[in-house]
Design brief:
This protein is an alpha/beta fold and about 350 residues long. Helix content is about 35%, strand content about 15%. The structure holds pyridoxal-5'-phosphate (PLP).
């Protein structure tokens, strides 16, 4: 593999002079700030919300860096992982010319973001039933215009992990970026591939505080990569891409690692309980093993079951239209009480 970041970066991005914000130009915290056209009188007492937030989210990155074992320079913080996905297209894919590879069924935003940015999408379906990567066809699909390959592990909506040996083969045979989405990694029985960033300069890892960290409403997405790749992200991102409230709340939430680990254990236990209970229903054809906080279930009539549950005010996702997911519902693991309620209604449905 011959990875050259310069070669895969769009020319306009290489030439780009990024916007220089007031807070980026003067980094001191004390003083009379007359540089950013803010309202210095302020409105919300005791807050700093009349001021622009830290454009580089340094305090948040420092805390994240300690948890993830990474220097700040290897971390990008975005307005949800969706912002990181969008930046990848904008920085690396020449509209109408470059292509990316996605492996359906998978997280829908890769394709939507590709379409928004007019990148060509090559779809190489996962292998039916095992939902592993179709390595041969992925390698065949790569051409000189392929810039990104998205791998979601654990995968949404199937819930399974993807073999490390397959990811490794792709990393070693592709000179574009391999984007490994680890949104659900905290629920998995295996570890993040963050340590592999040292071995593979073409690896970008996405994570989020929306899942295990229980902060979906704050919109905090993360990308980890080499400093050079993160520099490209920072060049392209809007100057103040993460608001002050999200930064502050995320910083204090990250102190609760013991509580979150205990919640992860609860969710993983509930996943096991639900997996076994779901498998016992006659209308359930298959419960796919999950490494995430949701379970994909094949049933005899997904639409009928979806409608029945919705009527009971239990909202799941009907994934039947996704490739290889005919008659499949995706059910998020809820609280122990919510899961009991779900099973109670399913019992009544089965009768
Ligand atoms: C695989 C995967 N990646 C990313 C996201 C989006 O994460 P965020 O909330 O950080 O935008 C989701 C959300 O469902 C997801 O399933």
């Amino acid at each position: 593999m011959n990875f050259d970041l310069d070669k895969i970066t769009r020319d306009n991005i290489k030439r780009l002079v990024p916007y220089s914000s007031a807070r980026a130009e003067y980094k001191g915290k004390e003083g009379i700030f007359l540089d950013a056209n803010e309202n210095s009188l302020g409105l919300i007492k005791g807050s700093n919300y009349n001021r622009y937030p830290d454009p580089m989210q340094l305090d948040l990155k420092e805390k994240l860096g300690k948890i993830k074992g990474l220097p700040i320079g290897n971390i990008f913080v975005g307005n949800g992982s969706d912002e990181a996905i969008d930046i990848l297209f904008r920085a690396f894919c020449e509209p109408g010319k470059d292509n990316v590879i996605i492996c359906p069924p998978t997280y829908g935003m890769y394709e939507v973001s590709a379409n928004i940015n007019d990148a060509i999408v090559n779809r190489v379906n996962l292998i039916p039933e095992t939902f592993q990567l179709d390595l041969q066809n992925i390698l065949k699909a790569i051409d000189e215009k392929t810039k990104l390959i998205f791998i979601c592990c654990p995968n949404n909506p199937t819930g399974n992990g993807v073999k490390w040996s397959d990811i490794k083969t792709i990393l070693e045979n592709f000179s574009g970026l391999v984007v490994l989405d680890e949104a659900y990694i905290n629920f998995a029985s295996y570890r993040s591939l963050i340590p592999e960033l040292l071995n593979y300069p073409n690896l970008v890892i996405l994570q989020t505080l929306s899942k295990a960290w229980a902060l979906a409403g704050l919109r905090v997405g993360l990308a980890f990569a080499s400093q050079q790749i993160i520099d490209v992200f920072n060049k392209v991102k809007p100057p103040y891409n993460m608001n002050a409230v999200s930064q502050q709340l995320a910083i204090s939430a990250l102190d609760n690692i013991d509580e979150i680990n205990s919640q992860i254990r609860t969710i993983v236990n509930e996943r096991k309980y639900l997996t076994e209970a779901l498998a016992a229903f006659s209308f359930v054809k298959k419960v796919y093993p999950s490494e995430a906080n949701f379970i994909l279930v094949k049933v005899n009539d997904a639409e009928a079951l979806y409608n029945y549950l919705a009527q009971k005010q239990i909202i799941v996702r009907n994934r039947s239209k996704d490739e290889l997911c005919d008659n499949c519902l995706r059910i998020t693991v809820g609280t122990p009480e919510e899961n009991k309620t779900l099973l109670k209604f399913l019992n009544e449905y089965g009768k």
